[in-house]
Amino acid sequence: MSTQLTAETLIPLSVPERKKLILHYASLIDATEITDKKLQPAYKYGRIISSIAPAYFRYQIEDKNDNLPFLELEQQSQLIEKKTKKFTSDFINWLKVDFKNKSAILDQHPNPKNLFELCGAKLLVTSNSVTRSLSTKMGRLWEEIADISPYVIIPEFEFQIKIKGIDIIIFSDNTVHFAQLKTLKGTLTGSQKDRAKKELSIHDNPLFVTAFDLGDWTFNDDEIKRMAGKEFWDKIHVDYDLVENHVRNMLQKIDKVFTDLAAGG
After folding, report:
1. Does the pLDDT at position 118 exceed 90?
2. CA–CA separation, 235 and 32 (whole Å)
3. Which residue ranges form the domains of the chain, and what is each CATH number?
4. Backbone angles phi, psi at 262, to 5 degrees
5. Do residues 22 and 159 make contact, with C-beta atoms less than 8 angstroms apart?
6. What is the mean pLDDT of the segment spanning 28-47?
7. Is residue 188 predicted with pLDDT exceeding 90?
């Protein structure tokens, strides 16, 4: 492959073409120092993206500032609202189908699997799966909201590449950070914490960040900086109050639909 890997050569390419070029150059990286073979591809991708990231970020920042008044709160609000509205619509559609399916199962009096099914308690039967699904799906929403910032690269969006243990790449103070992005400070449990440390520690300047400053930290490591809520959103130049307000509206709408369904509305 004769195409040189630089930000200038990557930017004009389609996303699949970017992926192909990065994968080629990643294949040339020696990752034998990473003893966990499952993390060697992530190390290679990280090395390659790090090499072009500063110039890539500077292009994004200059382009966004030239063509879109990104730092204006009204513009940020519109971009965030667009994403939360789509999420609300998609989740409510899923919710209605899920509730209908579970209600049909209860109405047909199958062999109950738990006390809630035995008693025909539709809301209790569905509530656990709904909150679990909502929490899982919201993880991607934080990435989509963060991606409105030119100080962010989501590898999966920008290059169609999943880097194991890395959700978001951040440019701050002329430094490239590889980070995991979770919803709350207490998201990780026992074995998940150790895995996250291993996944983050193979990259330079790793971060563990959460979208909201809620709960108590369950992740800690002397070598990996943590940040939560407003501190994280400030770092990528997105207004935290806007994020919180739009997410509050989103969850209140979903909650109302769920309540109406449970009431037979």
Report:
1. no
2. 33
3. 7-67+149-237 (3.40.1560), 73-143+244-262 (no CATH)
4. -65, -30
5. yes
6. 96
7. no
Q: Tokens at residue 231, please? A: 């501190």
Task: Give me 139's structure tokens.
Answer: 């993880």
Residue 98 Cα distances to 14, 48, 64, 121, 156, angstroms? 37, 42, 40, 15, 28
SS3 string, the chain, reads CCCCCCHHHHCCCCHHHHHHHHHHHHCCCCCCCCCCHHHHHHHHHHHHHHHHHHHHHHHHHHHHHHHCCCCCHHHHHHHHHHHHHHHHHHHHHHHHHHHHHHHHHHHCCCCCCCHHHHCCCHHHHHHHHHHHHHHHHHHHHHHHHHCCCCCEECHHHHHCCCECCECEEEEECCEEEEEEEECCCCCCCHHHHHHHHHHHHCCCCEEEEECCCCCCCCCCCCCCEEEECHHHHHHCCCCHHHHHHHHHHHHHHHHHHHHHHHCCC
pLDDT cut 70: percent of the chain above it? 93
CA angle 179, 180, 182 (to 5 degrees): 140
The answer to whether residue 206 scores a pLDDT higher than 70 is yes
Q: With left for phi above 0 and alpha for psi between -120 and 50, is residue 44 left, alpha or beta?
A: alpha
User: Whose CA is closest to 156, among 10, 18, 11?
Assistant: 18
Longest Cα–Cα distance of the chain, Å, equals 67
Query: What's the pLDDT score for residue 44?
Result: 98
pTM of the model: 0.91
Tokens of 45: 């991708």
Distance CA 62, CA 150 (A): 9
Check if the beta carbon of residue 34 is closer than 8 Å to that of residue 202: yes
